[in-house]
Specification:
β2 (84-88) and β3 form a beta hairpin. This protein has two domains: 7-94, no CATH class; 179-377. The protein is elongated and about 80 Å long. Helices cover 59% and strands 4% of the residues. α2 packs antiparallel against α5, α9 packs parallel to α12 and α19 (342-358) runs antiparallel to α20 (363-374). The chain is built from 20 helices and three strands. By secondary structure, it is mainly alpha-helical. The N and C termini lie far apart (63 Å).
Amino acid sequence: MYRTVPSALRAFGRVHGPPRFIRQFSTTPRYGVRAIYSETDNAELNSVLKEIQETIILPAYLPPKQRRIVFDPSKRGYLEQNPIDIEVEGLEHRFKSIDVHKDLKSSRKLLWDAIHAMRTKEDWDNLATVLAGYRKANIRLNHNQQAKVMRMAIQNGHIGSLLECLKQAQETGLYFRKKEEFCNVYLGVNNKIETANGDLAEIRQATRWGEIVLDLAQRPGTIQRSAKGRNVRTFLHFSLFARGMLLHARASLAQAKQDAGEPIDEDVITIKDDLVLLASLWAPHLADGKPVSEVDEVKELSPRGTEDASINGRSYVECLAWQLRAIKLAEKLASEEAKPLLPLAEALEKHAGDIIEAGGEKGAYWSKAFESTFKGSE
């Protein structure tokens, strides 16, 4: 939106040449994601975010004509005589001429530089701003790049910041598309619970993340249909492995609350419902003695599955280990409801052994990952 400076001020101090017009634009956020990054104590990150803001995000708020002037080196003199200012969320910025061949770094490189520089929660809370800014600038990340963003957030333990991006998917462009991504988040949730070492507050937070993920799978605007047009929302919401890992999170929370002397009656009711649901989800796939390896989700996610859909071998066997731990822990809290899943636990353990054996040189590495995850239940 143009905001004209009074003509008297434009002409003030000018002896020669035409009146000096300052083009100033203003915008306010319509949604929840901030357009301007939040400065942190991380100097390296601040430097990268400032560059992203000034060369990618803020120019995207200009009308096309003014944006062309900013990015045209031949208009440098014109821009000096006719400054273009912008106000976004209270930040006032005056544009300098930007030479796309000399002054601009690769937008992808800047993105990875920013993410690699993120350390604390405050750092990672800027992720949504960066992604929304890229989308505003019409810079689209392909599926592999989006999956990498998710993996890096999960591996660094900042699932909360990732979920904020997914909640605002229409702004950030970050969506759930496959069970691979869905399961990776739950792997992160359960790893967070593991490293909590019984700390009730941390386990409660991680379990809450797991429930938010399930909620996002049902919320319009946070997922995209696959190329084949199947209902991804239903597809994700009833993921066998994700449901198993959520069961583990809820059972872990109940155990931690019980250890702390808190009542768990409502938790046990939820766990019983989860066990009944999980048994009903697996039952059709294992009818007539069908092996676990022939279940569609197993074929899709296992290292033997299609390359673009599977998670890596280590993550896959860890996923299997969490299923076993979930059933074992839930059995302590709701033994009757867990009984139908005990044969499944045996089948999954055998399947894990088959995958590890078929892994060749990687098998030993996968075996250690499986044992390391599963031994936590002992």
